[in-house]
Amino acid sequence: MKITKLETFSIPAVAFTRLTTEDGSTGWGQVSTYNADITAQVFHRQVARWAIGRDTGDLGVLVSEIPEREHKFPGSYIYRAIGGLDTAIWDWRGKQAGKPVAELLGGSAGTIRAYASSMKRDITPKDEAARFKRLQDAHGFDAFKFRVGSECGHDKDEWPGRSEEIVPTVRKALGESATLLVDANSCYSPARAIELGAMLEDNGVSHFEEPCPYWEMEQTAEVTKALSIDVTGGEQDWDLHHWKRMIAMRAVDIIQPDVMYMGGMERILKVAAMGAEAGLPCTPHCANLSLVTLFTMHLLRAIPNAGKYLEFSIEEADYYPWQYDLFVESPYTITDGKATVTDAPGWGVEINPDWLARATYQVTKLEA
């Protein structure tokens, strides 16, 4: 079916895309969050112009062809924008077939274990532990991720001693049965990461995310080799050649591509398949409650090497004020620590019309 119109509705934090085909049927997608208003401009200038008039069945070709057409502009913004085309086509396909995207990918509707993912570093260990305990009691979470070090911190903690304090504090509050994960966001040198990693192992932490600068794969590989804890990473990485290298050198134990940073489902499926071939689990990054978490839910219900859990942001309006009025009905309910992919067609979600009316609108149409 020919694509006749591509629209974006954007604010700086998030932008949705809507695809319309020649019969008037539609599909909803999203470009990557963060500077999404810029990505919406990239979408119209460098993605929509090549996709308009093409067939929805050409998605795989378009995802490869568009970066070649725009070869003077290699980099993440192109892929963050391509994701808006990719995910809208998948929604359109699901609606046409009357099936959830998970089923189109070879999986099914159903539940996924989730971990409560904290983004905060300015929270005290005591307050973080108390917040996790409330979520454990209210929603049945049994896995929790929190921050250690400081973001790109060159071995500096958010404040002295915080990392050494928060790990045993959270462990004590949640008990020995809780699964604990930590994220260093590129903070440490290999030596410091290995030193901290020993403490994490002593406290039963099972997941050490992005311990070293993510662009220094050799450093991360050094930490992976030294520790028994799972070292994980890859959320920022979008280049398939980089992914091949990362997996071939076993830089991490668990791969964490992001649907939106990668450029949509077509490309993240390729990374997941690389991981599967190498025997590596895939636990994608999805750090907010825009559509990216829903996309990831469908993905995890379909790939053979799906990791143990879904990342689920627990941040409230003080941290992500923009993420709470996006949908007519939220697709995000955690019951007994699990999220649910419904059997509704496509992504199974509708964007809030009031939000759309407030957003910046742009359109690319097929000329008559």
CATH topology of the largest domain: TIM Barrel
User: How many structural domains?
Assistant: 2
Shape descriptor reads: globular
DSSP, total strands: 12
CATH level 1 class label of the largest domain = Alpha Beta
Intertermini distance:
16 Å
Spans of 5+ residues with little confidence (pLDDT < 50)? none
Largest pleated sheet? 8 strands, mixed
State Rg.
20 Å
Portion of residues in helices? 25-40%
**Mean pLDDT across all amino acids:** 97
- The name of the CATH architecture of the largest domain is Alpha-Beta Barrel
What would you note in describing this structure?
With 368 residues, the protein is of the alpha/beta class. It has 2 domains: 110 residues, Enolase-like, N-terminal domain (Enolase-like, domain 1); 239 residues, Enolase-like C-terminal domain (TIM Barrel, Alpha-Beta Barrel), CATH 3.20.20. 40% of the residues lie in helices and 17% in strands. It contains 13 helices and 12 strands. Strands 4, 5, 6, 7, 8, 9, 10 and 11 form an 8-stranded mixed sheet that branches. A 4-stranded antiparallel sheet has the order 3-2-1-12. Helix 1 packs across helix 3 and helix 5 packs parallel to helix 6. The longest helix has 22 residues. 48% of the residues are buried. The model has no long low-confidence stretch (mean pLDDT 97).
